[in-house]
Amino acid sequence: MRGSGVKDLVKYLMDQAVKRPWGEDPMLMDEDYLKSLSLEVVREKMLDCIHQEIPYIVDQRLIDWKPMRDGSLRIEQHFIVVKLGHRKILVGKNGSKIRQIGMAANEELRKLLKRTVHLIIQVRVKK
């Protein structure tokens, strides 16, 4: 076949297509997409800060996603680990690692969402 008739097919399909406005704005992101994006951003920052195998066995959950009256957004996420030692590594000395992860993720989320973000991250040990 070698592409014979492709131009004719494209022309036929374009002639048959109904021209109308999009039902939704293709550039608009829905809330589910933004929630998964927030999880990915926080996980990426965790992987950047923790240089051991522990991040690969950490479960991550979105606990709360709440638009506030002032236009900001409150996001709460939990890291779930299986051992207390993993929790200690993620939290760091005096909370230094989790603070570093939170600050980096918060900065990126503010840029992506174009609004103030109150990011709360907790590390829990699985029971």
Structure description:
The protein is an alpha+beta fold and 127 residues long. It has helices spanning 6-16, 31-49, 84-91, 96-113; strands at residues 59-67, 73-81, 117-125. The protein has a three-stranded mixed β-sheet with strand order 1-2-3. Strand 1 (59-67) and strand 2 (73-81) form a beta hairpin. It is elongated and about 65 Å long. The mean pLDDT is 90.
User: What's the helix-strand series?
Assistant: HHEEHHE
- Specify the structural class: alpha+beta
Major beta sheet summary: 3 strands, mixed
Low-confidence runs: none
Which strand-content bin applies to the residues? 15-25%
Give the CA-CA distance, first to last residue. Answer: 62 Å
- Mean pLDDT comes to 90
Task: Estimate percent helicity.
Answer: 40-55%
Q: What does the radius of gyration come to?
A: 22 Å
Q: In a nutshell, what does this entry contain?
A:
The protein is of the alpha+beta class and about 130 residues long.
